[in-house]
Each structure stands twice: as structure tokens, then as C-alpha cells.
């Protein structure tokens, strides 16, 4: 066979080879006793005396080449490694093994951010039931019976005095009944309102609220705690403002606005062109609430603030429909 | 409530633009939710007629319009709006005009062409939100007419959110009082007293129970003419959303919107007489009200009677029969005060709410009943003619003035602001508190009769803060928290479990607490399971939300089902939430259990190139439970007893008799009800109980010093014996030298007898004290094999 042809075939075979067994077969095919190179060498006898040195040199060169190529390939195929460590070549462009992480629900993500901030500010968690006594949900919070202030919160009733809590504030009363000041707590959880459901109203949503009671807690402290909380959540340059409002269980009561993070107060679609976004309600604990839990309003003062977790998550992430939170469409949940 | 700024200006000077007024009111607690300007004020905005529209020589988007504005020569005006066309009537702001936003219009060159004014859009006139092009007027108009004549005189209407503690804000005068306090100016009251006529009408007023009706002012007006109201009255009412009916009805509405006192007028000719009574309704009675609905009356409702016949439901709605109509000439004008709770109960039982009941149930100023009656009578005389007749003022117990005291130190303590007594006194005076007197370190005030909300010191502190300005409180403080929060260990468990499951590929879901009541029978629960009885809501929003859930499973399976419809076939989700179980607690409250539900499902199809396991099965969910236990340092297998129900395909892990975890394949009933087309596996974990199983700090065990010895056995069982039986037996018989057991193979097939299974089991032996000898291990093995054979009929496979 023509030596050039032989070399080409050798190189092709080695390049195509993918494992050590095959490589050995290639060695035998080319340089073994019945191999093509050996045959070439054997053919010297029949060649003319002038051609013999050239053929001999070619055959030896090919033999050398074969050894070199095979040795190189052997190393490339892991021939020097213990067999268990050898990894055959693969197509590395195939995608990763399918085993991706899941997702936190956007509400629990936002809630966790808030509780982390509150922990840092010294607020400890407190808990209460969803199914609540009318006393804790209304009466102890200074909502008199048959008073229009009860219309502020449409309520689901199980019996005359058992209802689904309309806010997380009953936890305040339950906690204060069993603790003496000073206290600094937050409570978070699900609340229920018997309201027609639409893009911005849900019969079930989530609230978080803070309560701080000590001998000289003032509205100034309230303003500062709210500012810290909002700035941690929306950025250090966020401004807040207090507007007088009414809640039966606080006095003075305030509505808290924060400067819009979208336009920095200039007015945009997020804030409805006002530059401000309403984020929570707050106020100084009403003396009647203190009386209901046996605290002396002349000795203690305190503040409370509360906000809707769902609403805040909507603001923060630009979600336009509150119903998405409990709908659990994975195409929604996987975005967070 | 809708409030007209021009109406407010009758009682108080307002020298700020409407926008500033709105924000000042908001900062006083009268939240202006919407503001709508009507009409045009600027005289230099006139109606123009577009004669021609030509192209601007230098700008494609501009046109040069020739506009007739009533002057001898039409004006050239450059306009950029796409909708301008010849023949239109449009508002034109002439040279010198000022737009509501303050912009001044000047004659100027626009790209080289002189423009003599501007054709305005709605938004430029402050009349709407439409910025897309100029405002085109309907009909034909005389060019040059001031736009105010066509578009109406300027006014701004605020929609104000009135909080339930401030019924005194439910009138223009009430709002004017706040404005006067804010701008330190006076209120102009429009009242003058009207002398009643001689007492010859025979009017009597009999109040059955004064607490129900603390005051009733009845007044006769005779010989009036019912007619349409004059334009000013019609406009005033219509701007704040009240339809004009006739002059008498309009006056009573006007006085209510002015002063906050609801009034009612009866036609005397239809009353039958002037013996007026205020008493509870009787079950035998009914009344056809002004809304043309007949209401059955009862003991818990208060009614007004004429000659002992119900003629109105007190504070809620009048009767149709005695209403003022076109032919009415003599009226009885009612100006009264009723018990707010009674009005609220009554109107709720009638399932209506009226402007009057809205005010009465929040509380009205009973001292103003007479003033309101005078005011209405004066207007009736002015607009309907008529002469005042007899007046009876039934007012059994006029209230004593209330005095409330506010201490400087307490004010400072609550507000964190250094206010002097003098400052406090001045702020309260501005807010119309009466007889303000400084006493040492405190201020005492008499509460004006319209401030029903002020009863104690904190109420005054709020008033001081409100007028002082919430904005000035606590601003610029350098605040450092000094307490340290104690993290709640249960919350930590919840967080840690959440994070663990998310990194295991589960997505968190949150579902509704409501249930439709159809689930309990579908969940395979025992008859005695307390979860079968769900808590019922008396007034549910919809019938499928009538109960509270006692399991998280139905809600989660339902959402998986829905996600199948969205094309998701591989779903792994978890939910941490409360379930409600009826309990025998004295309070009547249910037991609320925090549950974790995890569910996973995959189709029986290869959908990824190197996937080697297809559909999910029981062992996937068991793996999740054990891995969850490991992440929380809870030895699930060691601490809980496992039970598997072969028939149902479900399992439980129990702590003594208490189930902590249950799971398996979704019960057939539920799968069927939801038309589930792919097997879903789940586990439901009682987090409260799991929490109890947590170990304390982990304790170090010395590392083993001696090597292990492994022995593999191939054990053949007959039908009915499970791997669990084998493991239990061999762990027991092997004793403490056995460190662990692994099953490495399970085989069923033709080489075994019918129903038999072969398990490849690896036993790992180790002693903490020495290296074990072969003989020692062989002895143990022999014992193990013998026990397996005698107890379970297990044989060794040769």
C-alpha cells in the first residue's frame, strides 16, 4: 500500500477512536504482526535494491508515528489513570441536569423582609388565632357595639361573639393582657373581610403590625420607627408623611404616606401622580385599650402601626391584581 | 362626602388655590380623595370659531388657524392638536390669559409664525384628564363669549373621606370650621333666628322615651307655594350630587348639607292633625316610605306618628303618604335628634341607608336643632313664601357643657414635642373649644356641642397634634433602638423548613382558608375524626366559602389541578398554613393547627435527556419527609412509628398514638371529584407536633475506632410479608453489634415461586470496643436467619 495512504488511514483511525479497546485494535491493525506497516516493511524484499532504503525509511517513520499517535491518544483517553477516574468525552453543550430549586411565595418573601427589619429594630413576634372572640377583635379595641366604626371592617361571623379576625390588632390585646410593659412586639398573619372581591380587594389578606409600650413612648418615636422601617424596605432616601386619620384603637391616629419610589415624589403612574403612596395606618394606643388590659394610661404610653402585606407586595413588585396571591398560578409564583 | 369650594367660601375666607386647600385639608385629617374642577374663571378665555386651518410653513405637526373670537379681525393662532378643524367652536386663551395651573398665555412667535393665543384642551382648562387634542364644544355659540358663560362659573368639588369619629365634618359649615382653624380666620355663620307665629295651630309633640329622641323641634309654616328651586339652589345641590326636587325638599337638603342637621317636611293636610308622637313601632303597623317600599314595623324601630299613625321612620326615611308634593301649602318642619344606635339598628333592619340615617347614626349636634329649623324657615319664607306658624321645641334634658382638661406634661409625653400651656390653649381656641382657661400646668376647655368625639384628655392631645401639624412631630430625630428582639423558635422552624423545601425544588403556595364543605367525606377520614366537622360561617361571601378548612390537601390538589390546565405537568409545591378543628374549648374557639402540606407529581414520561426516573412515587415523598427531618435535626425514623396502609396507599408517622405526619397518594374520592388525571403524592405534617420533636443542641459522639464488617443476604419471602417485617425481625435478633441495614435489591420474577419476593440485604456490623471476628458475626447471622425463618417463613436464596 502507498505509504501516504497508510499515514492518512492511521491518522483517521486514531482521531476517530473513543476508547482504549478500540485504540488497541487500531494499533494491531496498523502496526501488529499482520498490520499494514509491518506488511510494508516485509515488502522490502521484493523491492528493487535502489528502492529499498527509501521504503525502509518510510516504514520506520510510519512505525514511529503510529507509536507516538497511539501513545498520545492513550493518554488523552485516560490510559494513565485508574479506570474509575476516567470520564469519557461528552457533549458539554447539553443542558444541566434537571433539578432546579423551587420558589418562595412572593408574600412570604416580602413578609420575611419585614420581620427581619422588625427584629433588627427590637420587635419580637407575637401570635393569635384567626378565629377570634368579638371582644378581642372589637370591644377591647374601643369599637363600641352598634357604632359606625364597626362598618370600617365588614366581618365574617361564626356566632354572635365568634368571628374571623378583621385585623391583627386583637393580638395586641391578648399579649398585653399577659405581659407588663415595657413591650415591643409585632404580629403578622391572615385577616378576613366580608368584602366584594376585585383587583384590589380580597376577602383574605395578610397584615403585620407593631406595638411598642413603655412609660414615655411618644409620637416622635412612632415617626422614627416608621421611617426606619419604610427606609429599610424601600431605600434610605424614602420620605414619610403623617396625615391625621381615625382608628378606634389609637389616638392620635395617622395615615402614613411614603414618597413614591418610582418618581421620587414627582408624580407618576405608581403613585397616581401625587408623589405619595399610602402604606400604613398608625397611632398612639388609645387610653381605652390600655384600660381594657389593665394598664394605667397615665403611666404608660405606646404606639401601634399596621399594614397590609399583600398591598405592600403589590406596590413593591408592581403586581396589579391582589387575587394573584391566592390563585397560585405557577407562572406567577415562578417569577419571584 | 362631596364638598363645593365655592359653597365653603360663603362661610370662610379661602385665599389659597384649590390644590393647596385640598392638601391642607388632607393634612388635617379630612382626606381629599378626589378633586374635580368645573367651569372656567379666567375672563380672557373666550369661545372662538375656527374659520380655516392652514399648514405651518416650518413644522409638519403644527397648523395655523384663523379663529373668530368676536373681534373685528379674526386672529391667527398656532395649534398643535391633531383634531382641530374648520367650523369648530373651541375655547381660546387670549393674550394675557392665565390658565388654572398658573401658565400665562402671551402673544408670541412659534417657529416664525405669530400666534395670538392658544386653543385649549380639557386638561389645560383644568376640566378633565383629556390631553389628546383641543376641547371641541357642542352646539353653536357667539364667538367672543367668555368661556365661563358657556362652561359654567368656576368651582372645585372635593370628595372628602369623613372618618366615623367626626360626624361634624358631614356639612359645609363643619369643613369651614376646620379651614378657619387652619388659616386662623373666623367662620361666618349665616343664621338669624326666626320668630315663630302664635300658638294657635294646636301642635303637640309627645316623646314616649327621651333617650330615644332627646329633642324634637316641630314648626308649622303655612301658605307657601311649592315650585322649582331658583338656579343658585339647584346648582349648589347638583354640584354636590343631590338632585333638585322642589323648593321645599331642596331647602331641607340644603340646610342638611350646610349644617349637618337632617330635616324633614310633612304636608300638614295629609297628617290628619298636629298631634305628633315619637314612639316605638308596633308589629301590627307598616309604612310606605318615600322610596315606595312598604316596611313592616316593630318594637325595635322608632317612628314619628301623626295622630298616632306612623308617618316616618325616625331618622331614616319619611312616609310617602305625608310627603310634600306640588299642591302642598302648609308644612310641618321636623328638626330632631335621635339615638344613634337606634337609628343604626333600624336602618340595618330595613336594609337601607339614607343621607339622614348616615348622619344620625354617627351623631348629630342636638343643640343645633332649633338653629337649623330657623335657617330652613328663613329660606322657606324667602323662596316659597309662607308665614311661620307655631313652634314646639320638645327638649326634655338639655346636656350640660362638658369640660375636659389637658396637661402639658402628658401632651409632651405622648407627642414628644415641647409645647407650652399657652401654645396648647391657643391651638384649642383656634379649634373652636370654648372657655379655654389655663390652670397651672394644664388647660381646661368646654367642648363645643358639635364635637361629640371629645370626651377625655387624649382626644384633646390629638386635636393639639392635628393643628400643630403631624409633620412637625419627631422630625429629624436621631433614633437608636435599645431593645433586642427575641426570635421565636417556631417561626425559625417555619423559615428553615421553607428554605429547605425551596432548595429541594418545591415552590411555596398560599391558599384560601375557606372551604365549601364537600371535602371531608372525600378525604378518607374515620367517622370519629374531628376534622370531619368544619366550622361554619354565618354570613359567607359565597356558598363555596361557607366553611373553614380542616385540611390543606383539597386546596393544594385543586391548585395543582388548575396548573395542569395551564400546561404544567411537573408540579412540586408546599403550603404552610392553619387548619381549623372544632374543639371543646370553653371560649368556643376552634383549635388552630399549623400544618405543612407538600405535594409532588410528574407524568410517566421522559421529558428530559438524562432523566432516569419517570413518575413520582411513594418513595419520593418518603425521601422528602426524611430529608426534612434531617434538615431540622429531627430523627423521624427513630422517634416516630411508621405505619403503611397497603390498600389505601397511605402512611402515617405517629408519636405514640398521635399522628404527626400522614401522606401517600391523593385519596381516590378527592382525585375523582377534581378529575385529576395524574397521580399526586402528598405528605401532611403537623408543624406544632413536629416542633415538639426537635432535639436540643447536638451532642458529639466519639468517632468509631474499629472497622465495619459487611454481610449480604438474599432473603426470599412469601406473599404477605413486607420488608418492614424483615427489618424489624433482624434488628431485634441481631442485637447491638448490628450498626445498620441496607436493602440493595428487590426482585420478583419467574425464578421465584408465585407471590414471592427476594430482598438483597446488606448487614453492617461494628463494635465500639474491638474488631469483630468472622466467627462472632457468623454466630449472629445464624441467629438472625433462624429467627427470620421461624417467625416469618423467610428463606435464604441459594
Number of strands of chain A: 9
The pLDDT mean of chain B sits at: 91
Radius of gyration of chain A: 40 Å
Mean pLDDT of chain A: 89
Distance between the termini of chain A: 68 Å
What amount of the residues of chain B lies in strands?
Answer: 25-35%
Structural class of chain B: alpha+beta
Radius of gyration of CA atoms of chain B, rounded to a whole number = 42 Å
Query: Share of helix among residues of chain A?
Result: 25-40%
The strands making up the biggest β-sheet of chain B line up spatially as: 25-28-29-33-32-31-30
* Helix count from the secondary structure assignment of chain A: 12
> Can you count the beta strands of chain B?
37
SSE string of chain A, helices as H and strands as E: HHHHHEEHEHEEHEEEHEHHH
Residues in helices of chain B, as a percent range: 25-40%
Which two protein chains have the largest interface (Cβ within 8 Å of the partner's Cβ), and how many residues from each? A-B, 90 and 91 residues
- For the biggest β-sheet of chain A, the strand order reads 1-4-5-9-8-7-6
Tertiary shape of chain A: rod-shaped
Strand percentage of chain A: 15-25%
- Give the N-to-C terminal Cα separation of chain B: 92 Å
Q: Structural class, from secondary structure content of chain A?
A: alpha+beta
Tell me about the largest β-sheet of chain A.
Answer: 7 strands, mixed
Descriptive report:
- The complex is a heterodimer of chains A (336) and B (798).
- Chain A has 336 residues and is α+β, with helices and mostly antiparallel strands.
- Chain A has helices at 3-16, 20-31, 36-42, 52-76, 106-120, 134-137, 170-177, 219-234, 287-292, 309-317, 324-327, 330-333; strands at 124-125, 131-133, 162-164, 183-192, 204-214, 240-247, 250-259, 276-285, 301-308.
- Chain A has a 7-stranded mixed β-sheet with strand order 1-4-5-9-8-7-6, with helices on both faces. In chain A, strands 2-3 form a two-stranded antiparallel ribbon.
- In chain A, a hairpin with a 2-residue loop joins strand 6 (240-247) and strand 7 (250-259).
- The longest helix of chain A has 25 residues, at 52-76.
- The two termini of chain A are 68 Å apart.
- The mean pLDDT of chain A is 89.
- Helices cover 26% and strands 28% of the residues of chain B.
- Chain B starts with a strand and ends with a strand.
- The relative contact order of chain B is 0.06.
- Classes of the chains: A alpha+beta (336), B alpha+beta (798).
Amino acid at each position: 500500500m502507498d505509504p501516504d495512504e497508510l499515514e492518512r488511514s492511521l491518522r483517521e483511525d486514531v482521531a476517530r477512536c473513543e476508547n482504549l479497546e478500540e485504540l488497541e485494535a487500531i494499533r494491531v491493525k496498523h502496526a501488529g504482526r499482520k498490520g499494514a506497516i509491518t506488511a510494508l516493511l516485509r515488502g522490502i524484499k521484493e523491492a528493487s535494491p535502489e528502492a529499498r532504503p527509501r521504503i525502509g525509511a518510510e516504514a520506520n517513520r510510519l512505525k514511529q508515528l503510529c507509536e507516538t499517535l497511539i501513545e498520545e491518544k492513550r493518554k488523552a483517553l485516560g490510559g494513565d489513570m485508574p479506570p474509575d477516574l476516567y470520564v469519557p468525552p461528552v457533549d458539554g453543550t447539553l443542558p444541566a441536569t434537571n433539578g432546579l430549586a423551587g420558589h418562595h411565595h412572593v408574600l412570604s418573601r416580602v413578609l420575611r423582609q419585614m420581620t427581619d427589619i422588625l427584629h433588627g429594630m427590637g420587635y419580637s413576634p407575637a401570635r393569635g388565632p384567626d378565629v377570634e372572640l368579638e371582644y378581642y377583635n372589637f370591644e377591647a379595641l374601643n369599637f363600641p357595639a352598634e357604632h359606625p366604626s364597626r362598618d370600617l371592617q365588614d366581618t365574617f361571623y361564626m356566632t354572635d361573639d365568634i368571628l374571623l379576625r378583621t385585623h391583627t390588632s386583637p393580638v395586641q390585646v391578648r399579649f398585653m393582657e399577659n405581659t407588663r410593659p415595657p413591650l415591643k412586639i409585632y404580629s403578622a398573619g391572615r385577616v378576613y373581610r366580608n368584602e366584594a372581591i376585585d383587583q384590589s380587594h380580597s376577602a383574605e389578606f395578610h397584615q403585620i403590625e407593631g406595638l411598642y409600650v413603655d412609660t414615655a413612648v411618644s409620637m416622635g418615636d412612632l415617626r422614627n420607627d416608621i421611617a426606619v422601617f419604610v427606609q429599610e424596605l424601600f431605600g434610605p432616601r424614602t420620605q414619610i408623611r403623617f396625615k391625621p386619620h381615625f382608628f378606634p384603637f389609637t389616638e392620635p391616629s395617622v395615615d402614613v404616606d411614603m414618597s413614591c419610589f418610582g418618581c421620587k415624589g414627582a408624580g407618576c403612574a405608581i403613585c397616581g401622580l401625587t408623589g405619595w403612596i399610602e402604606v400604613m395606618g398608625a397611632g398612639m394606643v388609645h387610653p381605652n385599650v390600655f384600660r381594657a388590659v389593665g394598664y394605667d394610661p397615665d403611666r404608660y404610653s405606646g404606639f401601634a402601626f399596621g399594614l397590609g402585606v399583600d398591598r405592600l407586595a403589590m406596590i413593591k413588585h408592581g403586581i396589579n391584581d391582589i387575587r394573584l396571591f391566592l390563585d397560585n398560578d405557577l407562572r406567577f409564583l415562578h417569577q419571584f | 362626602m362631596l364638598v363645593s369650594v365655592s359653597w365653603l367660601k360663603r362661610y370662610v375666607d379661602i385665599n389659597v388655590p384649590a390644590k393647596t386647600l385640598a392638601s391642607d385639608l388632607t393634612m388635617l385629617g379630612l382626606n381629599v380623595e378626589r378633586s374635580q374642577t368645573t367651569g372656567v374663571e379666567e375672563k380672557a378665555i373666550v369661545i372662538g370659531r375656527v374659520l380655516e386651518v392652514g399648514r405651518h410653513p416650518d413644522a409638519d405637526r403644527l397648523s395655523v388657524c384663523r379663529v373668530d373670537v368676536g373681534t373685528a379681525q379674526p386672529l391667527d393662532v398656532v395649534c398643535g392638536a391633531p383634531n382641530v378643524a374648520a367650523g369648530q367652536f373651541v375655547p381660546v386663551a387670549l393674550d394675557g390669559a392665565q390658565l388654572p395651573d398658573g401658565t400665562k398665555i402671551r402673544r408670541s412667535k412659534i417657529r416664525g409664525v405669530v400666534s395670538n393665543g392658544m386653543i385649549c384642551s380639557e386638561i389645560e382648562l383644568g376640566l378633565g384628564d383629556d390631553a389628546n387634542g383641543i376641547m371641541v364644544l357642542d352646539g353653536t355659540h357667539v364667538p367672543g363669549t367668555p368661556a365661563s358663560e358657556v362652561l359654567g362659573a368656576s368651582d372645585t368639588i372635593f370628595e372628602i373621606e369623613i372618618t366615623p369619629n367626626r360626624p361634624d365634618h358631614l356639612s359645609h359649615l363643619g369643613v369651614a370650621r376646620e379651614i378657619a382653624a387652619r388659616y386662623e380666620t373666623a367662620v361666618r355663620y349665616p343664621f338669624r333666628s326666626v320668630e315663630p307665629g302664635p300658638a294657635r295651630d294646636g301642635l303637640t309633640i309627645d316623646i314616649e322615651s327621651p333617650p330615644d329622641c332627646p329633642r324634637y323641634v316641630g314648626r308649622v309654616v303655612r301658605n307657601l307655594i311649592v315650585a322649582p328651586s331658583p338656579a343658585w339652589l339647584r346648582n349648589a345641590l347638583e354640584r354636590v350630587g343631590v338632585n333638585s326636587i322642589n323648593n321645599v325638599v331642596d331647602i331641607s337638603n340644603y340646610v342638611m348639607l350646610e349644617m349637618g342637621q337632617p330635616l324633614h317636611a310633612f304636608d300638614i293636610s295629609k297628617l290628619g292633625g298636629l298631634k305628633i308622637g315619637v314612639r316605638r313601632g308596633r308589629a301590627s303597623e307598616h309604612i310606605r316610605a318615600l322610596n315606595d317600599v312598604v316596611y313592616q314595623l316593630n318594637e325595635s324601630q322608632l317612628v314619628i306618628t301623626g295622630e298616632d299613625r306612623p308617618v316616618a321612620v325616625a331618622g331614616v326615611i319619611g312616609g310617602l303618604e305625608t310627603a310634600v308634593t306640588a299642591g302642598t301649602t302648609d308644612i310641618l318642619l321636623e328638626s330632631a335628634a335621635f339615638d344613634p344606635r337606634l337609628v343604626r339598628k333600624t336602618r340595618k333592619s330595613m336594609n337601607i341607608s339614607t343621607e339622614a340615617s348616615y348622619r344620625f347614626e354617627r351623631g348629630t349636634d342636638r343643640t343645633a336643632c332649633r338653629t337649623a329649623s330657623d335657617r330652613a324657615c328663613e329660606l322657606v319664607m324667602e323662596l316659597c313664601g309662607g308665614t311661620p306658624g307655631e313652634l314646639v321645641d320638645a327638649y326634655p334634658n338639655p346636656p350640660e357643657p362638658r369640660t375636659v382638661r389637658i396637661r402639658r406634661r402628658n401632651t409632651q409625653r405622648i407627642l414628644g414635642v415641647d409645647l407650652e400651656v399657652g401654645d396648647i390653649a391657643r391651638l384649642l381656641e383656634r379649634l373652636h373649644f370654648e372657655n379655654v382657661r389655663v390652670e397651672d400646668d394644664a388647660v381646661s376647655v368646654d367642648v363645643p356641642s358639635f364635637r361629640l368625639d371629645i370626651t377625655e384628655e387624649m382626644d384633646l392631645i390629638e386635636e393639639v397634634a392635628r393643628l400643630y401639624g403631624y409633620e412637625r412631630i419627631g422630625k429629624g430625630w436621631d433614633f437608636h433602638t435599645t431593645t433586642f428582639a427575641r426570635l421565636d423558635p417556631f417561626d425559625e422552624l417555619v423559615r428553615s423548613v421553607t428554605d429547605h423545601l425551596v432548595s429541594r425544588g418545591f415552590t411555596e403556595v398560599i391558599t384560601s382558608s375557606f372551604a365549601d364543605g364537600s371535602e371531608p367525606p372525600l378525604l378518607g377520614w374515620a367517622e370519629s375524626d374531628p376534622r370531619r366537622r368544619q366550622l361554619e360561617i354565618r354570613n359567607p361571601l359565597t356558598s363555596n366559602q361557607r366553611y373553614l378548612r380542616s385540611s390543606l390537601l383539597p386546596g393544594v390538589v385543586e391548585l395543582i389541578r388548575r396548573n395542569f390546565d395551564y400546561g404544567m405537568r411537573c408540579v412540586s409545591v408546599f403550603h404552610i398554613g392553619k387548619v381549623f378543628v372544632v374543639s371543646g374549648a370553653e371560649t368556643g374557639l376552634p383549635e388552630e393547627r399549623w400544618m405543612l402540606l407538600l405535594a409532588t407529581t410528574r407524568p410517566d414520561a421522559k421529558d428530559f435527556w438524562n432523566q432516569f426516573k419517570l413518575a413520582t412515587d411513594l418513595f419520593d415523598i418518603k425521601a422528602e419527609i426524611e430529608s426534612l427531618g434531617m434538615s431540622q435535626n429531627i430523627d423521624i425514623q427513630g422517634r416516630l412509628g411508621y405505619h403503611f396502609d397497603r390498600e389505601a396507599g397511605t402512611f402515617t408517622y405517629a408519636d405514640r398514638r398521635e399522628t404527626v405526619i400522614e401522606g401517600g397518594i391523593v385519596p381516590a374520592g378527592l382525585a375523582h371529584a377534581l378529575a385529576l388525571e395524574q397521580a399526586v403524592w402528598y405528605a401532611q405534617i403537623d408543624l406544632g407536633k413536629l416542633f415538639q420533636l426537635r432535639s436540643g443542641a447536638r451532642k458529639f459522639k466519639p468517632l468509631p475506632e474499629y472497622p465495619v464488617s459487611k454481610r449480604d443476604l438474599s432473603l426470599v419471602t412469601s406473599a404477605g410479608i413486607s420488608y418492614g417485617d424483615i427489618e424489624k425481625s433482624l434488628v431485634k435478633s441481631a442485637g447491638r453489634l448490628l450498626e445498620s441495614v441496607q436493602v440493595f435489591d428487590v426482585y420478583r420474577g419467574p425464578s421465584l415461586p408465585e407471590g414471592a419476593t427476594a430482598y438483597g440485604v446488606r448487614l453492617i456490623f461494628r463494635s465500639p470496643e474491638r474488631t469483630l471476628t468472622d466467627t462472632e458475626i457468623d454466630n449472629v447471622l445464624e441467629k438472625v436467619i433462624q429467627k427470620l425463618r421461624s417467625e416469618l417463613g423467610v428463606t435464604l436464596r441459594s
